[in-house]
Amino acid sequence: MHWFIPLLLIFGFLTGHAIHDENFTVLLTIFSLIALWPLANDLWREKQWKVGLFIVVIGVVLSLAVAPVFACLTVALGGSAWLLAEHYGQSLGRQLLIGGLATVLPALVVEPAGLALGLWHYNAYGLYYGVPPVVALTWFCVGGAVAVLTIRYLAPKTIVQSGAMKSVLLVLAVSTGVCTAFGLWLPAILGLLLLLYGFQVLHYV
Q1: Which of 1, 116, 124, 184 would disulfide-bridge 179, Cβ 3.0–4.6 Å?
Q2: Phi and psi of 128, rounded to 5°?
Q3: What is the DSSP-derived secondary structure letter of residue 125?
Q4: Digit-coded pLDDT (tens) for 99-118
């Protein structure tokens, strides 16, 4: 895993320069699906079919409403919210807060990368590299709600394995590379810091 991340950073950087290639969206979609493999593998080993079904429903709805790439990214971020909220949060309030932060911080890297690549757009004016404040608030609320719902109702007795964090690290690595290619230095630096933190988390879960 450690040696794979630098390769994905380079892949993301090159993707930023290959934006006019007609195949780049297809490649990103394939990568996004592959990035979910660690999370899916852990769910399979834990026999968490309820969570798996929940993820499939979210993925299908978002794929139809937005795009398959966006759906995969959302599922990956939701996985990290679940992992960290269960690991560090005991009360409902802490689970909501940690789940929200665990979603919105990576989204601050993923969103500018997606906008730069033209994978989606917003009509409202965005203060943060084109991302409107309401988008960050939505990520926070959705991440917290998904974390609490998963922990308390879908998988109340499960100790989440590292697959969720690995999926997020894969997504973050590519997004950070894309932000670097476009000169989006704040999200690029944030992405590097989150990657370092993610590796630290993997040592304790």
Answers
A1: 184
A2: -105, 90
A3: -
A4: 899 899 999 999 898 888 87
